[in-house]
Amino acid sequence: MVAQRLVEALRARDGAGAWRISVFAEEPRKPYDRVALTSYFSARDAEELTLGDPALWDDPLVTLHRDCAVTDVDRETRTVTDRLGRVHAYDELVLATGSNAFVPPIPGSDLPGVFVYRTIDDVAALRGWVEEKRRSATTEGGWERPVRGAVIGGGLLGLEAAGALRALGAQATVIQFGTHLMDAQIDLGGGEALKRLINGMGIAVRCDTGTKEMKVSRRTGHVGRLDFADGGRLDVDVVVVATGVRPRDELARAAGLEVGARGGAVVDLACRTADEHVWAVGEVACIEGRCIGLVAPGYAMAEVVADRLLGGEATFPGADTATKLKLQGVDVASFGDAFARTEGAMELVWADPVAGVYKKLVLSDDARTLLGGVFVGDATPYASLRPMVGSELPGDPGAFLLPEGSGGGAPSLELPDDAAVCSCNNVSAGTIRDAVTEHGCTDLAGVKACTKAGTSCGSCLPLVKKITTTELERAGVEVSNALCEHFELSRAQLFDAVRIAELHTFSEIIARFGRSVVDETGATVDPGRGCDICKPVVASILASLGNGHILDGEQATLQDTNDHVMANMQKDGTYSVVPRIPGGEITPDGLLVIGQVAKDFGLYTKITGGQRIDMFGARIEQLPHIWRRLVEHGFESGHAYGKSLRTVKSCVGSTWCRFGVQDSVGMAVELELRYRGLRSPHKIKLGVSGCARECAEARGKDVGVIATDKGWNVYVGGNGGFTPRHAQLLAEDLTSEELVRTIDRFLMYYVRTADRLQRTAAWVEDFEGGLDAIRAVVLEDSLGIGADLDAAMARHVGDYEDEWRAVLEDPEKLRRFGSFVNAPAEPDPDLAYVTERGQIRPATAAERAAALEAAGLAGADPVPAGPVVIAGSTLEVRR
Questions:
Q1: CA separation (Å) from 424 to 30, 258, 300, 825?
Q2: How would you classify the pairing of strands 171-175 and 148-152?
Q3: Which of 83, 415, 426, 858 has the fewest other C-beta atoms within 10 Å?
Q4: pLDDT per residue over 389-417, tens digit each?
């Protein structure tokens, strides 16, 4: 990770191209994100962990040698030798070899079934082992038992490994030699609170326990038992050793460079070794007497070396050792002097053992300057307080520890411009403020793109968003989540409120969650009627929650113009009729039916971009008659009028195409029939391509599916329109069942949390944590709502009914479809058409005027019944 950052920083600054860079990697992959290594258990796609812009490695001044470790360094000749025996010269050499997982000298640690947790290959091997054990884990009686796992080491990595074992369906027990979990980051009180949280996840914990030996199972020949120093024992099928790391300093040692007492190449604050042409960065560097096993200090070292190579004078700014546990359902963070080692330091603690919350601030002896802190169970203050280390806190420090709603509340923090907000990318609060005031960024996505803040681990995003919002408000830009003047809630908040309160009408919803409106005279106005913003939103929410037909009762008054008559209004006041054609697949008989209907009603026909047939020019009183004919022949509403699923476009796939590897038409039909009628914040389009040639243009859709030899890749967040976006890879090589479940959860989560009229592309960009956070929810069930999302989609599928069929069966609804209240069957006399290319189109104003003049009725209205020939075109008025 640090090597990648160094190359990225050097190329970004070296405009003259003074340096040609060669990177030698031991692994067969491009540099990837080890911080997010646990996500590989669910995503199973190494490419998704790749760091930075892939184009970096296509730079002509950068060469990446993969699977090509350096085996020897000759400082006198300034050359390195790779594993293939090739010799490469250098002007400057940077060691960025990182660390190895440390395995204590425990007998049996080399047995099959014992793993470390350091690389993608380690994680892949562990996953494969557990999955194989799950398939074969049966007792002699023939019934299945769970796979028994143990993790030796209760630090950050050990707890992540235990969480990964649980996610794989195995039992997990954490064995910690020290007095409490994460003893390098948090104190005993925090460790006890953390233990209760970990136990609540179904993970057992044994502290003050040393492992004496790993015993082989005579039945399997693999690891089968752990024997402890206190005489205890634990039967196991798999063991993960996560007891720390050791710097990979063997090259430095062999080259005669000085190493630290606990390893690592000794460097000065410029990250240079005693050899002026050799540098070291990251976990292999021993700087200020220690090696630092965190990515943020490594990134800082990379920036220092890049600056120095270009003639700068940068020095290492010191290590930000703040840590935050990335484990589903567990909130833990520590920063600064968490153990109060500073002379005279005071500890301010607030604990709620019942809720599993422990909070501590470490302060100077006058209780004013923040020195550090520990948060377990609720790390909400972490993002705001961490940059304040060394600064004076405003007001009562205890207020930062009290839960919301307890009175008082935490004082407002104003971070100084030089406070580090994003330690991964060295972004200060001032840089974020400048992005708003100097560079015109108006939202979180813009600030991220401008500054890179929050684009690595993402833990700083809440603070980045807070600073951005504050700066926008100072600039006079109103920042509000309120839906409209009638609701203080955002759409997502209102969706959850309606769902939880089980409300079914707009009147109930606005009475419960609406707010009174004050007019310009100061009088309070009844908000009961709502507005053209909140009414369609409530209509969409109720439809998404399966509240019956959109034209039932009060719901009918909430609908937009198109939804009100279930057809798209055109420029001349007529409507289009779009029957659903799943996947673009239609029989010749179906084509004949559509053709005959269009012919009988004189409609203009066009094949749409979504692979179906649109019929234009239908008058409102004709809509039921047209749809009766279509419904009788098996067609149903295509929902072209609604904020809902539109189409699922497909190529012919393996059915006909010689390049197709999967049945894309069959999958497209299945998906369209599954999601038809699904109401959402905006329209949704899907595409399914049968191979990588991508004929269905799936990556331009909200959800795109592309077939592979192994299954299906699914992409999300694409769209055309004013700002086209390519969809991004969400998951790879899924089975058909996995694909459907993944799309189910993605769409339902979007429906629940997106803003009003927000397409999936904008939703993904604005979502806190971006696609990675959405992926965690959808694939890893990080919020524990997967079953809820599955059930919601199952309800939608089970409750689906064709909206037009329901209208045709309800005389009350049919009364809505009339031209005039007093003459519902009479056509609109103002409709006039010109025949062009064998079909009709609406007449222009000039053509209408010419028709009146030709009939000797200039200035009259409506146009007299035609047809009238005007300059070679036929204008016809239809009665």
A1: 19, 28, 8, 69
A2: parallel
A3: 858
A4: 888 887 788 888 876 544 444 555 677 78
